[in-house]
Amino acid sequence: MALYTRENLPELLAGLADRPLRVFLLFGERYLCREAMAQLEQALLRDTGGTVHPIDGDQEELGTTLAKLRSFTLLPGRQIYRVTDTRLFHSRQVAKSIWDRAVKSHAEAKAEQAKRGLRAFLASGGLDPAAPDSDPAALSASEWQQCFGFARPDGDLSWTRAYLALDNTDSSTSAPSSDPGDLLTSVLATGIPANNVLILMAEEIDKRKKLFKLLKDEQTVIDLSVETGSGGKAQKEQKAVLQSLIRQTLTEEGKTMAPALIDLLIDRVGFHPVAAIMELRKVTTYLGDRAQVTRDDLDLLVGRTRQEALFELTSALARRDLEQSLAIADRLQENGIHPLAVVATLRNFIRGLLLLRSLIEQAETGFQPTMSAAAFQQACLPRLKEHSQWKKELGGHPFALYMQCKTASGFPLPVLAAWLHHLLAAELRLKGSPVAPDIVLQHLLLTLLSRLPQKRGQPAG
Fold first, then answer.
1. What is the tally of helices (H) and strands (E) in the chain?
2. For residue 173, what pLDDT band results from cuts at 50, 70 and 90?
3. In whole angstroms, how far apart are CA 351 and each of 18, 64, 227, 362?
4. What are phi and psi of 264, to 5 degrees?
5. Which fold has domain 308-450?
6. Mean pLDDT (whole number) for 205-219
7. Pairwise CA distance, residues 434 & 292, whole Å
8. Residue ranges of the chain that CATH labels 3.40.50.300
């Protein structure tokens, strides 16, 4: 009957009693969907009471769900069948976004999210996540393109196997031979008991599907998506969402917080709604009877960890991202990390790059920046480890070492050597110069990155 967004969601919740709706579809940002789903359930059960039946879409047998939806029950009140991560709206059109989400979860070591994303990804391409021949790492470039509609990513994809092996089942995730949305369409056409309600939730959907159009025209669809990316428009929208969630949480907790501190909390947490609210609730719990959140409270409880923040800086430096490097350096000092600790971290990072660049420069190593992680581990790593004097430096995880070698290959030896001289100069200024530490760090980063040559150019003097 309508398409709602987070802005007019209160209007929907207020008028539910007057609308004989049977199916609700929520899609978009996961935390926003879960919050809206909880509000929707509360509104549906407010006057009639009833029961919520949770169903994991990743493990769902659609036929069983639809049979329950069509059945009358002896239980009192409304019967809500809530399907999270439904696969009804997956297709090749959303495969790329699902894949990107799974890769991001893998990079952040979030095993459950990576597993869920990979299974949804395979289903979107019509593959059975439980079938041995559905191994993404084993698919050829042509098979990948045919199934998912985009080019097979470069590099070693064997990491996917570990996630797909977690809690694997073989019957509930089989890819249907036809569009499962047609089954739900048929059920809706024949009618379902008045007290039965179906709530579907998905992070990505294909809006071209007939079922989506049907639900938008005849039932209720709630769009809770937030534009992703690092562009100005996307960041503005993400910030507005977090500001709204934070203010709502503060109201619920009976606390107040200056707008500048809200922005500081967002800057420290980033666009992670779950993390933002968890961190805020941690602060409000700490306050006790005190109503006002202060800067000291945030610095004490929400400051980024030293390890995470310093890793962000070295990652930005490796990407040659001057703007981000300067912003992170400022944030490090705001969080109380001493400038000398920043310089020491950069020194260790650059020394590591210098060592690896020196080693891979040797022809016998056989390293090529375009080689896969598997080829690196089989051909290059044994030769690198022949240098027993660097046993400690080369003793990390093979994939991490592979990525470090790829990073090192992008920086000429003279540049890395010059960087160490600039670090020494910055350290001496920090120890004996009246110049403010933040100015010293800014000058250091500007010197390192603004004079960096292009990849095909000559090293800066």
1. 21, 8
2. very low
3. 68, 59, 39, 17
4. -65, -40
5. Zinc Finger, Delta Prime; domain 3 (1.20.272)
6. 88
7. 37
8. 2-88+180-224
